[in-house]
Amino acid sequence: MFSELDQAARLSLVENAFRSLPERYLGAEPGFDATYHVRLCDLGHVWQVRCTSQAARVCKGATRRSPDVTITTDADTWLRLREGEFSGVEAFQRRLLAVRGNLDYAVGFEGMFRLPNGRDPLVRIYDVAVGRHRISTLTMGDGPDVLLIHGLGGTRASLFETAAALSRRYRVHAIDLPGFGSSSKPATGAYNARWFANILLGMLDELEVDRLHVVGNSLGGRIAIELGLCAPERVSALGLLCPAVAFVHRGFHPIVRLLRPEFGMLPHRFRRSTVASQFWNVFFDQDAVDPAVADLVVDEFRRIYQSAGARYAFLSSARNIYLEAPYGRAGFYPRLAELEPPALFIWGSHDALIPAGFSRHVRKWLPSAKQVTIEDCGHVPQVECAERTNELLTGFFSGVDERDAPVVAAGRTAA
User: In terms of DSSP bridges, do strands 56-60 and 45-52 run parallel, antiparallel, or are they unpaired?
Assistant: First the structure.
């Protein structure tokens, strides 16, 4: 066991693992240049890894070059990551490592290196080109496909725990929506549910994924519903986490219509305290959220929001959520009644943004849907109540898979 080795033997194993990184490097896109500091606290040493488009260079000890990412963990975890025993996303989920700096760079680090014996990395981050759009995608696991879609103002990081849980039996694609995270941010995007859904269908075509389960939180849940409405043949089942369904009472409708997202193109930024306050407000039990993770997410939002395109996307998406008509010929709820794929709605009992009371409207228009309310939970159940949420999603998808298995097998036999 690694823990039984003396300090010198442990350090030797770690140094050999770092020395092997350059020969295992898979490269990066043109222009990429990132510096990582890896701190192994139990050994008391720091290694610097600089990755460019062509090569990775490793040196022991920090240099004057400021790191884009600092990864803090212990030697045993680091070696197990390098051996591929589990992924960095799983280590992050288990709180075996901490990250400061660019979260996307941190998550993508392990995907830039082959595992021992030439094996592919457990996690890969890459861009999928869909017309003039570029969708940043994290893929992990093996099996039937699952798409994870984050909420307004978030990134795929809000679904890391769900990705880790589902990747044990599925191939998971956790994306940054166009306009958010590391994806492209077109200043002319419509940023409504149908616009997002069309781009994601194009992404699935590029990935050659014919059919899959879809999980979405908040705005992501609304987009997931739109995928099920406009392409039901592509969606096996929907896991909807506090989805942004249409507001029935819209008292601020005239004011919101006057608020133009183009103002987001003007340079401005939110104070850190403001972002942190809004972050904590989406949770009911704030003790359930790791403060270190909260700091990371707040810093990531502020970093991304420095982009004019990101500000425009955020304001446009928020405006479209609020202004969507609930009823009428093209209203949300009459359309919801036409949803074909099986759907699981998960609500938070103390969600102040999309209250669990919306379940009664879903029950009226889509009585076939399964609905669960998690007690003492806010707007982001996959973070605040991760274990319960993942249990519900896994059970629901397993039931759909078992139901569909005879149909798939019969189709193959007939072919």
Answer: antiparallel
